[in-house]
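F.,

This is the one I mentioned.
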């Protein structure tokens, strides 16, 4: 038996993040107008952080019915991200979803106040990343300071031949022995997207990551 959210809880989850998807790197607007001027379209989902049913992803048997159906156990996502997190709960555990939720609420609050939506220290996610991959983030921060509009980056060895376009950021395995794993961590947080075509590994930085690195 699924223990679903009430309409009131769903409304709270959506409004606390300004009807935007809470996944880091997504931020998809989930509500807008229909052609009919009296109606609207919603592509947002009030997703359970710990599952609504015993056989669901991240189920926590220690929660009461009230706790399982409360807004504390919910996160507002677009339909794509809701499917993503429930299809791979190992990659997207409870702590990650709670960090996304905290970031999305902080982003909405700061936007409401007219501040920067990616202020440093906004969520534990960035603090954790600063501990996990400090050297890579420091280099990316320097690169974006010099080239603030660049978002595509490539992963190379210095001995490789690569026809650069001059519009990408370049990171070397020689400098970061676990470079692939470090970018996979960023990808798990939704802060970069793999856009590889051919043999050279390429990623695109999200605006959330670029703004954080630019303001930190």
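My design for it:
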């Amino acid at each position: 038996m699924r223990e679903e959210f009430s309409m009131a809880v769903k409304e709270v989850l959506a409004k606390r993040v300004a009807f935007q998807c809470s996944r880091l790197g997504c931020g998809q607007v989930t509500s807008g107008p229909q052609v009919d001027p009296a109606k609207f379209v919603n592509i947002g989902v009030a997703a359970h952080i710990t599952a609504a049913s015993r056989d669901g992803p991240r189920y926590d048997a220690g929660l009461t019915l009230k706790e399982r159906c409360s807004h504390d156990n919910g996160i507002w996502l677009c339909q794509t991200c809701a499917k993503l997190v429930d299809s791979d709960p190992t990659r997207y555990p409870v702590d990650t979803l709670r960090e996304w939720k905290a970031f999305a609420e902080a982003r909405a609050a700061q936007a409401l106040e007219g501040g920067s939506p990616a202020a440093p220290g906004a969520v534990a996610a960035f603090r954790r990343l600063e501990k996990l991959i400090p050297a890579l983030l420091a280099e990316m921060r320097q690169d974006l300071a010099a080239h603030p509009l660049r978002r595509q980056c490539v992963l190379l060895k210095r001995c490789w031949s690569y026809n650069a376009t001059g519009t990408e950021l370049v990171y070397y395995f020689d400098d970061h022995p676990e470079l692939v794993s470090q970018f996979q961590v960023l990808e798990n947080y939704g802060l970069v997207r793999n856009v590889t075509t051919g043999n050279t590994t390429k990623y695109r930085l999200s605006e959330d990551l670029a703004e954080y690195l630019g303001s930190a």
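The chain has a mean pLDDT of 87.

Talk soon.
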